[in-house]
Amino acid sequence: MTPAVPRPASRPRLLVVSPNRSHLALLARRLGAEGYAIVTAADGATALGELRRSPIDLVLAELVMEPMSGPELTRAIREQLAFAEVPVMLIASRAEADPAVRAFEAGAEDVILKPFHFEVLVARIERRRAAAERVASMRADMKAMDARAAMKAIELGELKDRMYQLEAERRRVSA
């Protein structure tokens, strides 16, 4: 196992969802040791409640859960505008038929097949988080550019009005 990489003061918050208590505890402990702030949920309804309660940077959930499956949880997350951009990764057993297809159709960013190497899981989490941060940064930049464009349009309108006033004044003086 690689040593934990030091993280900034604001630790990324991961929501880990699994009905299997021992699996949930293991993931929470190992991911916590990697520097993540871990929030856990035993089912989809609880996970949605946790998403509403505090900001989450990434959701890591089991594909097979009852009563709400991983793909159903993913759809529920995607349907809510406030959470639509939160990356979702689903964990699936190799024995499950077409897990990736169901997960991706629901809007998940990634599917991790069991058994997996923990280091690979962490690398994939970081890759998904980095991509989400780039998208958020681009959106913020676009919003700032839109605001600047709106200000420039207002300034241009004001200059145009001033030009018409000056032109009207020039005509009045020359008449």
Summarize this structure briefly.
The protein is built from five helices and five strands, in the order E-H-E-H-E-H-E-H-E-H. The chain is an alpha/beta fold and 175 residues long.
Describe the structure.
The protein is of the alpha/beta class. The chain has a single domain (13-135), classed as 3-Layer(aba) Sandwich (Rossmann fold), CATH 3.40.50.2300. Helix content is 56%, strand content 15%. It has 5 helices and 5 strands, in the order βαβαβαβαβα. It has helices at 21-33, 44-53, 70-79, 99-106, 118-174; strands at 13-17, 37-41, 58-62, 88-93, 110-114. A 5-stranded parallel beta sheet has the order 2-1-3-4-5, sandwiched between helices. Helix 1 links the parallel strand 1 and strand 2. Helix 2 packs parallel to helix 3 and helix 3 (70-79) runs parallel beside helix 4 (99-106). The chain is elongated and about 90 Å long. Residues 1-8 have low confidence and may be disordered.
